Amino acid sequence: MWAVGQHGGRIRLPPDSHAPGLLAATFLASPWIALAQPATAAAPPARNFLWEVSSLTNRVYLFGTVHAGKADFFPLPEPVRKAFADATVLAVEADITDAQAMEAGAASMLLTPPATLATMVPAPLYGRFRRQLDRFGIPEPQVAKLKPFIASSMLAFAEWGRQGYLPQYGVDVYLISRAREQKKKLVELEGAKVQTDLMNSLTDKEQLQAFEGTVSALESGVARDQITGLVNAWQSGDAALLLEVMRAFNENVPGAKAMEEKFIWSRHDEMAAKIEAWLLNGRDRVFVAVGALHLAGPRGLVEMLRARGYVVRQL
Prior knowledge:
Layout: E1 2-4, E2 10-12, E3 50-54, E4 59-65, H1 78-86, E5 89-92, H2 99-104, H3 117-120, H4 123-136, H5 148-162, H6 171-181, E6 185-188, H7 192-200, H8 204-220, H9 222-235, H10 239-252, H11 256-263, H12 268-281, E7 286-291, H13 301-307, E8 311-314
Parallel strand pairs: 4-7, 5-6, 5-7
Antiparallel strand pairs: 1-2, 3-4, 3-8
């Protein structure tokens, strides 16, 4: 069973965990992302979280996704459908339908016996965590062997599920399915192993920071409210709003900025290099689908490619 990591990496849970909530969701399904307050000014013209990037010889499309959704997300907006139809290749962070690759990282999500989650987390914090388990109806034995980061991620995607956002309606899952139906080539920007290795690189201190941040966000209601803000930013194609969501949360959660650095921005040099190779040397149209935050702001993939001289426009 796969669950969303707090910053977008997908987590393969052990077969006996029976984790509730979202089965395949993302970096953005996280209490590390704060609430985006509704705008009081007039709304800008409707846009999509979609950009066309052109070189002299080719173009690629960059589409930001959310990894859990609702049935009414589909069909996707017409500009997205047209761009997808124009492409012969779909590029994703990792092919979450590759069961063998996902299974390979499952063991690394577990603690080494005799350690248990209860022994890794300070007792007062663990008590708060247990109250959240009760709130979601998650039996404690299902998380007892999980590392703190993974266990807290279960709570994050359970909140998404409670709000009606389900993995079977994840945008990346939908695109992978359409690509297979239409015989498009499917390629990975990273792959499951890269994402699993990144999560495994967390120190014990970082694990506990993420754990406590998740519990606190659920207790305060931020985890609930941020889902609405995130989806609103995505549906309106508003990358600035999405970035503001992150800024506000980083200011209020110790350790959140470092987590963002590790799980978002540190990955972009390698992603951008692959996209640039398609622009310079490729002839196939590539539709790149990544978590929406990867496209936002001056350190996002959109502005990185613009700074390298490519023509970029939002569709």
